[in-house]
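G., before I forget:
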Amino acid sequence: MIAEAGLATLWIAGALSLLQLFLGASALRPGGEALMRTVRPVAAAQAALVAIAFLALIQLFLRTDLSVALVAANSHSAKPWLFKFAGTWGNHEGSMLLWVTILGLAGGAVALLERSINERTLIATLAAQAAIGLGFYAFLLFASNPFERLSPAPAQGQGLNPLLQDLGLAFHPPTLYIGYVGISVAFSFAVGALITRDVGPAFARAMRPWVLGAWIFLTLGITAGSYWAYYELGWGGWWFWDPVENASLMPWLAATALLHSVTVLATRDSLRAWTVMLAVVAFSMSMVGTFLVRSGILTSVHAFAVDPQRGAFILLLLALYIGGALALFGLRVGTVKEGATFEPVSREGALVANNLLLSVILGIVLVGTLYPLGAEAVTGEKLSVGPPYFNSAAGPVALLLIAIMAAGPLIRWRRDQGREVLQRIALPVLLAAIVLFLVILLVPGIRILPLLGLVLAAGTAAASVAPLWKRNLRRTPLFTWGMVIAHLGIAVSLAGMASEAAFTKETLIAARIGQTARVGPWEIRLDAVDPIAGPNWTANEATLTARRGTSEPFVMTPQARMFSSPPTETSEAAIATSADGQLYTVVGKPDAEGRWQLRLWWKPFVTLIWFGGGLIALGGLLSIIGRVRRERKPKWDEVYA
Amino acid sequence: MRRLVLWVPLVVFLIFVATVAIGLYKPSERTIRSQMIGKQIPAFALPEAVPGKPALGSDALTSGEPRLLNVFASWCVPCIAEAPQLMELARRGVPIDAIAIRDRPEDVAKFLGRWGDPYQRIGSDRDSSVQLAMGSSGVPETFVIDGKGVIRYQHIGDIRPEHLPAILRAFEAAQ
């Protein structure tokens, strides 16, 4: 019954999205004003229904109802409940339902909460959101039905990919999807404002909290995903330039650019067309990412069950939505009036430079991700573009971007004097120079990118807190704090990346029981390897005693796990975190002489990468609170961040 | 002029859609008849790619026994995807040698430790010169080479489970 009820609810939600589109379009026609009041309730009802459908699917997974094909193919009754729950979105159909649920909820939230924007633009926005929803409802109902029954029901399910049987699965995909799909609101706002020719500061102020909200979740999702890959893949790396990772990075880059250009539009009424373009691009990147992951067109370690027909369906939706929005852009944006102008040396100038560099990085990542595809279409060759390309192409641009980011907040709006700017950044530059000198002195032979990374991290950290200098901290607006903390987070994260790249120590040995290995400042003794069993796996668990200098030794227990359903091996790294880094240990297979493969890494300050990511998201959160409070109380003192 | 510029994003996007549609609708036949099939492999001698693992020269591929030659790299994601299939081939007794492309010893060692090591010898091709001489331009690629050093079969792209029968047939035909 639950499956049928879920399916029925999904159909009704899909029908409501059609109604929402129809009502919205009619309300915008001359004489349609009477229909305006109907659009918001329909959007809210659609959100509620799609959420109910999603809850129904969760319920089926929690009960392990094996008469539902999706549950039988992806779950198993012997799985802990948390993984049954999270397994709901650990597969193609379930994660698409989550996708559509967030799309519906985002539209519902706009319908219920958005009060500041012109009502016609809001109606156009909700109609655009419904148009997107309609296509994806159709995709679910006709090509990816999550509620399909299986007859006869099997006695047992096939289980969930063991790499996904992890706490990370419970949080990472939903967080990422809220960001990924939440940015659809920006897309719909842009389309709505193009339709009603309403691109201006008021539109930017209305759009900003939604962009910020999606961006916060995107930041958190990428950060959590990176840490998950780091400890779960057992490979010690934190970013692999996998097509799926790139698919989450590209919307983030576009959303980051959008976040800054929308501020310029809201504050100074400049960059009108550019902001609209970025809003379209950001969600387009989400959809392109979805397509790349779901069509199986690129080989990835994140492979979903692939199906060219589904790929064709999503490609069709992409062509309709993105093509439609870009065509609307071409038609309408010429009629958008030019905004205010500004001098090259100004806050706006720095933000434009930031936007251009973010776009360049986005282009580099997009080209690298799609190049194998293009090459195959042209020459018939299959090939792979790896980290060597991404690191050497995107790395230097990213460093330049961060340098400009450091200086940006210290430059005045509209016009500034080059000399005065230099005076303001003198102290951070001096600090960076000291770090440069120290690192070269202490770490001879360090590679150029990590070196520049460390130097830039120091300078940026100093520059990012400089806007608070000589200010009354209690009267400093919350969104200024947000900017300071987010920029500081970039510096912290960069320091972690550079430190990990420059100072990681690695030891790979085949150890006998009782043997001791060294990695960095650590001594690690292999005490024992014992077989153990979990609910749906067995493992070889190594007992390691780690000691650093004269300090108290402690025990670490990495495992090599064998899952029964489906039969798969994974390595569970044991990680010890201390204030100055992480000790990362992995146990492998025994060799013919009874020695065990151990891989040991000492990664100084690697945790800063994710701590920085958290700071960036916190900065976003403070900013959104500050902005919303400001909108509610328009007479707050008029100090611009 | 400004008007035309506004349409550039749409044009770029349509090119993207066209490329992707070609990729989606082209038959997924991955075994292309290569110019190199039936030809003798070039003479080469590559240094070892990982300490402790024998290096690879063309003499090892002309020893009288048919072998598989896998062209891979530690930085290549499809190579990870095909690793289980190579392990399966090795388990069935197919001797596999490899050329690691533009790679570093520590990265190759990491890759083999993480994804399995089906290889008997690995040569390190730092500048792709042997790879290009073999008629291969991407990773991963896999060749079936008979005992006299003649290329009998070339598989382009990652080996998926459904490709194993064709590769095993080619290997047996090369006996």
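Chain B touches chain A through 43 residues (CB under 8 Å). Confidence is low (pLDDT under 50) at residues 28-32 of chain B.

More on Monday.
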